[in-house]
From TrEMBL, chain A:
Primary enzyme class: transferase
Subcellular compartments: Cell membrane
Source organism per UniProt: Lacticaseibacillus hegangensis
Function recorded in the entry: O-acyltransferase that catalyzes D-alanylation of both teichoic acid and lipoteichoic acid (LTA). D-alanylation of LTA plays an important role in modulating the properties of the cell wall in Gram-positive bacteria, influencing the net charge of the cell wall. Catalyzes D-alanylation from DltC carrier protein.
Name of the protein in question: Teichoic acid D-alanyltransferase
TrEMBL record, chain B:
Family from the record: Belongs to the DltC family.
Modified residues (O-(pantetheine 4'-phosphoryl)serine): S35
Name of encoding gene: dltC
Coiled coil: none
UniProt keyword annotations, A-Z: Cell wall biogenesis/degradation, Cytoplasm, Ligase, Phosphopantetheine, Phosphoprotein
Post-translational modification: 4'-phosphopantetheine is transferred from CoA to a specific serine of apo-DCP.
Name the record gives this protein: D-alanyl carrier protein
Amino acid sequence: MLNLQPYADPQYFLLLMLGLLPVMIGLYHGRRFKTYETLISLLFIILMFTGAKWQQGVALIGYILWQLAIVFGYLHYRKQRNQTGVFVLTVLLSILPLVIVKVTPAVVLHPSLLGFLGISYLTFKAVQVIMELRDGTMKDVELMPFLRFMLFMPVISSGPIDRYRRFQKDYEQVPERTQYLGMLERAIWYLFLGFFYKYMLGYLFGTVLLPRIEFSALAARHMYWLGLSPALIGVAFVYSMYLFFDFAGYSLFAVATSLVMGIDTPMNFNRPFQAHNIKDFWNRWHMTLSFWFRDFIFMRVTFFIMKHKLIKNPIRVSQVAYLINFLIMGFWHGVTWYYIVYGLFHACAIIINDIWLRFKKKHRKQLPHNRWTEALAIATTFCVVCFSFLIFSGFLNTLWFK
Amino acid sequence: MDKKATVLSILNDLTGEDFTNNLDEDLFASGLIDSMDTVQLLLQLQSQLGMDVPVSEFDRNQWNTPAKIIKKAEDAD
């Protein structure tokens, strides 16, 4: 039976555009064909889970029912009461399936039956809705809009992670014709930029160069202390390029497809390798994820600590919050030593970055600032980031322990 | 002290800058405040003006200039 993985091959893009043609015609004439859109989205989601992947499809259905019960159960509760304990329990129940899916491979060495492609991204969305219900910024959720938000087809497998209220506003507002034509123009540009990123540059770095340079690094590992050969530096840079072009390419496809459907899904990358420092980097790299972490973990943790005066010094508060934030991000990637070290590495990097920024602020007059110091800042940030991606890649695990 | 002056003094404490004549300065774009300062801003608004702003209410596009924050404070009651 036909199986279609999102944005995986030319056939997918052709069928996708064909399937979305009626949606485009409708939006061009100022109408959103809601039923058609729902059906075609469901069809593409079903085709992701046909054949050997049917178990994942069943897991997805079970997962959605689980989240529905939790979110609507909490909504019902929240309309009458608002206890912190219940809120915490609700969030824990909501992330439970994801925790099981992430922990299972580390314990029993095979993937969990509860897993399916996209589970993390659906969890981010569900938790966000629960947090907003808790804060009262969302008073109500309705069944169909919630399902539409959770299962929005263009982004279901790997984001970008949208926000409920933003998504809902776009969905209910049909863009004006000139505005929609502008969206289509952007969609076409993103689509082709995505092809260039993912299928040319991503292919060049990931499929052509990476295996060769990894081979060299493995061949040289006994000649250098800890296998730290020149080729390993090459692995760090080549892998980082691959990671960016592959993921940024995918994200461009997801944003382009959303735009075709009249939804302005937020962008995921903004020239991350031009970042001046690590903080700047996280405002440019996988933005919808880092903003999610900023808004729902970092800020909530700092708010909680400061409100309850658990730690007096604001600098110390931010350092603790960074550690918690990036450790959770590390665990989210998977329960392996290298993801957790990657999280800790970024926490330390951003803490050091903050110390430097404070020093700079105090000594603004003594420190030179020109295009050379800026170039140095960008180059340093780039190297630190590429090293972090070497940790993230898991290649050190192969190099040292296999 | 009126609300405008209170907000300006909170911002002054956080950033070390006086915004009296720069009410439309973009605080996030210029890097003058970050997430940490934001949390302190919300806590100060709460303790000094009694404004209860939950973290998830904080949309950066609606809070990015001193003028917008003053407006929020004035509209609060």
